[in-house]
Design brief:
The protein has about 425 residues and is α/β, with parallel strands linked by helices. The chain folds into 2 domains: about 1-200, NAD(P)-binding Rossmann-like Domain (Rossmann fold); about 210-423, Rossmann fold, CATH 3.40.50. It is about 40% helix and about 15% strand. It is built from 14 helices and 14 strands. It has helices at about 10-20, 35-40, 50-60, 95-110, 125-140, 160-165, 180-185, 200-230, 235-245, 265-275, 285-305, 335-345, 355-360, 370-375; strands spanning about 1-5, 25-30, 65, 75-80, 115-120, 145-150, 170-175, 195-200, 315-320, 345-350, 365-370, 380-385, 405-410, 420. It has a 6-stranded parallel sheet, with helices on both faces. A 6-stranded parallel sheet has the order 11-10-9-12-13-14. The N and C termini lie far apart (about 50 Å). Bound molecules: uridine-5'-diphosphate-glucuronic acid (UGA). Uridine-5'-diphosphate-glucuronic acid binds near residues 218, 259 and 261. Uridine-5'-diphosphate-glucuronic acid (UGA) binds next to α8.
């Protein structure tokens, strides 16, 4: 099939490359010319395991990037993968969705053939029917039936997105239109997993609910972890015993300093905001965010309990990315922690295998180091903020600290003499 993907961010780029791998002809439409150039030169503008290999395999063959909407005219399926960033009240900003819809419509105005427009971006229920459908049709000067509409949420984790695309647990295709559903099912036909057909708005809600549920599992584990810490019980032992109940599941039960990233905090806030707009007060969702905001404060409280006043102290921060295998620092828990350390007169030496350059822009006064050992030199304490596997091997490097106070916000170290935020 001929596929156009609007947006060359991590969802659009990964989805585009994977659809090419599945045998489709794909054009990724991206407004940033530097990204277009990089993609066409087979250089991924983001770090994602396996992405460079896919670009090398398919660019110049079944995959290309473009700044124009020209390829939309001949596409069978057009995926909208643009961002839906939060407004100041937590609601989703749909302006990129609106402009993409208008541009798609304009590109299809003189095209007589059928195509399907698919929303992959995370959007509040009703967006595809009330904003995308009319936006595309009006701009195309067409009526219902001439263009099909589908909502097909993504469940890709940054850093593992290609594996998640190729081996999903399920594919959700929301559509009332059989022809549109069949087009999208066909694009995925090589992936042998259950395909769930739903209404447009149920598909939109499935994405929000999945992310909110996963975020809830993490905040729940953190709350249990905070209780376990007081009782001198290892929350990881507890959650192993709990998670093996197949009704609960073993994943997303790792207690720590809380969830970050561009999705969970934004999507839970957006769900709260849309619940409020219809007169609901979602108690659990509020608690999910409250626990998440408090975890970094607990880490700092623990640090103060161990080393006292922070003024003049040197704190080594290991890990800046919001999780391992990414250079992304959006909503990273390292941010509020570093901010508080600096505000209280501490000096910070930081190390991350990938995210140093991104964090340098936010905190230019931090000393950024080329290794964990370098960051630990003469430090009064060390805070572990990201679950990078390489941190599991750190041991002798801790001898370079002035005082051996090591507090984990993520459970990853394997040496003795450390303390965890909830263990
Ligand atoms: C998340 C979802 O997992 C994807 O399914 C979804 O498609 C994506 O959001 C999205 O909406 O686009 P992502 O934000 O990339 O993916 O990262 P996760 O692996 O889910 O981790 C999120 C945060 O939770 C990280 O800060 C991680 O350290 C933290 N986490 C994760 C925990 O604190 N404990 C856990 O047990 C698991």
């Amino acid at each position: 099939m001929k596929i156009a993907v609007i947006g060359g961010g991590y969802v659009g780029l990964v989805s585009g490359a994977c659809f090419a791998e599945l045998g489709n002809d794909v054009t990724i439409i991206e407004i940033d010319p530097a990204k277009v150039l990089a993609i066409n030169e087979q250089q991924p503008p983001i770090y994602e395991i396996g992405l460079e290999d896919l670009l090398k395999k398919h660019i110049g063959n079944r995959l290309c990037a473009s700044i124009t909407y020209d390829s939309v005219a001949s596409a069978d399926i057009i995926f909208i993968c643009v961002g839906t960033p939060p407004n100041s009240d937590g609601s989703a900003n749909l302006s990129y969705i609106e402009s993409a819809s208008a541009m798609i419509g304009a590109a299809r105005r003189t095209v007589p053939t059928y195509c399907v427009v698919v929303v992959k971006s995370t959007v509040p229920p009703g967006t595809t029917a009330k904003i995308v459908c009319p936006g595309v049709l009006q701009s195309a000067h067409k009526t219902e039936g001439e263009i099909g509409f589908v909502m097909n949420p993504e469940f890709l984790r940054e850093g593992r997105a290609i594996a998640d695309f190729m081996h999903p647990d399920r594919i959700v295709i929301g559509s009332a239109d059989d022809r549109a559903f069949n087009y999208v099912a066909e694009a995925y036909h090589k992936i042998d997993v259950p395909v769930i057909r739903t209404s447009l708005s149920a598909a939109e809600m499935i994405k929000y609910t999945s992310n909110a549920f996963l975020a809830m599992k993490i905040s729940f584990s953190n709350e249990i972890g905070n209780i376990c810490k007081q009782l001198h019980i290892d929350v990881y032992e507890v959650m192993r015993g709990v998670g093996l109940d197949h009704r609960i599941g073993t994943q997303f039960l790792n207690a720590g300093v809380g969830f970050g990233g561009s999705c969970f905090p934004k999507d839970v806030s957006s769900l709260i905001s849309l619940a409020k707009a219809i007169g609901e007060d979602p108690l659990i969702l509020h608690a999910v965010l409250k626990v998440n905001t408090q975890q970094p404060n607990r880490l700092l409280k623990l640090l103060r309990a161990r080393i006292g006043n922070l003024n003049g102290k040197k704190i080594a921060v290991l890990g800046l990315a919001f999780k391992d295998n990414t250079e992304d620092i959006r909503d990273s828990k390292a941010i509020p922690v570093i901010q508080e350390l600096l505000l209280n007169g501490a000096s910070v030496s930081a190390y991350d295998p990938m995210a140093v350059e991104a964090m340098r822009k936010l905190f230019p006064t931090v000393t950024y180091c080329h290794s964990a050992g370098h960051a630990l030199d003469g430090a009064d304490a060390c805070l572990v903020m990201t679950e990078w596997p390489e941190f599991g091997k750190i041991n002798k490097e801790f001898e370079r600290m002035k005082t051996r106070v090591i507090i984990e916000g993520r459970r990853i170290l394997s040496c003795n003499g450390t303390e965890g935020i909830c263990w």
